[in-house]
């Protein structure tokens, strides 16, 4: 364990991968080892810039991560890429894999790419990813990119574990602005309108202007300096606007560090993480204790057979668990 | 309460709305009343066809529900529309409201439209919606449509409370097929390619063929008769293909009823509902018990201040709760 921790601290990528595999394991002995490993590494106090990246399918997340990641490593930075995949609960991701879209980055010695852990619950994926982030930080990565797809819960989870949350958008007609859920826009620290190239460039520039306006309306927070949150055009394919976007990210992060918001955000996130672990631990009783598991099974069968109403069965089960009813 | 139950059973829409408000309330006295109301109404044994409808923002869900709903009420059917909004956790829906898109349906005396309850957790929204479905069934609605947006968790929740799960898609180039998450496709009982009108019609027909092929590859289940799951073209705007789609939905539902799959799906859903209620009830201890709530607050503050690591604080809290560690 100490050996693995030392190797991770020395930046060894194979050891990092092994550590993440340990963190992702559901086995009780692995979990204990993972907790010990995380404890040990926390002492190093290393911090990466954690960047969350989200966008609907096909917007160019994979292409962007490849280009943006290569730009960062070209600046001498070490980059780790993790993913939170909300649909992995059922299938394990999109029909076509991502390997081909990140070919250069995956061969770069200063980059580390890890796909989303496959887990039954998004909460489980989030937990593993948070712990993987901690491992990447200990391994000395400067930037940890966390990708997620979708419009909903997974963005919130990613925003809750990152320092900056970036929304990648496609060029659109003005009418489509409504399609962006307000809640997701409110979480965004920056909107990047991708595919600002070729035929799509004029539409992309209009979309940038639209989102810039919408962002100003939706969110003016004490956490943001003047002029933020910003909308900017990029082309992941033609590698345009990436350095500018990175400069703006750094500016925002620096401003927040100076004004104490960076630390307070991380503090709130740590608290949230603690509360989540408590909730997960409570729920673990339902499957860890054989007697409880058995009664759950019996009552579940009775509910399925229509002999007991779901709510009534739940009330009985909760009495057994010594808990009051819901809410 | 009996009075309210009777009025709901008589199909009174204002009473139904009051019942749903009660079900959505977080107040303990309301919750007790809601449970009593649900118990009382369950005895009526009324069943609607529950149809889940999902699709990315802008695909035309609201327009479809308006047209499809009007087509159903024209057939003499009573239609209720509910929504599960994954982003309501933060904001309460999209920037532009939906009222204007469902103007006719919202004035139809045989229709009932209810927006998504605003709740801190998607799980809470799901629970309220499940209970609202039960109220709509008791009120004698023939069809309950449950809409959701997004790519991820909320579709799963909606699929878990409906008899049929329909995916609304936009016409697309062949390349974009990859953007559909496999897990969502696997849940779909039918794919409707919307906007099959005007310029978009040829693309829509191609997309139908693409999805029909993908569906055949992804899912051939004992729950489906020969030829299902199907992909069909519709135009919500021009009200084309809606009757055909409805006929296919009825055919699928009837087939499942005959073969016992309809009942077994509802049984599995009831079991799932029970298990979810138990989990929620367990977690309620964290905020209902003042001593526990206080200790949570203190430890949370210590974690935020960096004095205790999140995992260590969680372990302490779980010991206090008499639960083992996570997993
Ligand atoms: N013109 C143009 N096309 C792009 C750009 N970035 C990505 N694309 C194209 O958009 C399509 C989707 O790109 P991906 O990077 O796979 O998109 P994604 O967001 O990762 O998609 P999912 O993994 O399915 O969620 C591909 O055909 C890319 O070549 C860009 O900057 N300009
Ligand atoms: N051509 C055409 N346009 C349509 C059709 N259905 C909807 N639209 C248009 O597509 C746009 C979005 O429609 P909505 O019904 O609001 O889409 P939605 O899926 O409810 O969008 P969100 O509520 O944002 O998730 C609007 O401009 C509609 O007029 C259709 O059948 N054909
Ligand atoms: Mg991708
Ligand atoms: Mg809508």
UniProtKB/TrEMBL annotation, chains A, B:
Name the enzyme's class: hydrolase
Task: Please tell me the species this chain comes from.
Answer: Sedimentimonas flavescens
The entry sums up its family as follows: Belongs to the SIMIBI class G3E GTPase family. ArgK/MeaB subfamily.
Report the CDD domains cross-referenced here.
MMAA-like (cd03114)
Q: Name one Pfam family in it.
A: MeaB
A molecular function (GO) held by this record is: hydrolase activity
Which UniProt keywords are given for this protein, alphabetically ordered?
Hydrolase
Instruction: Tell me the InterPro entries matching this sequence.
Output: GTPase_ArgK, P-loop_NTPase
Its gene? meaB
Q: What is this protein called?
A: Methylmalonyl Co-A mutase-associated GTPase MeaB
Q: Which Gene3D superfamilies match?
A: 1.10.287.130, 1.20.5.170, P-loop containing nucleotide triphosphate hydrolases
EC number assigned by the record: 3.6.5.-
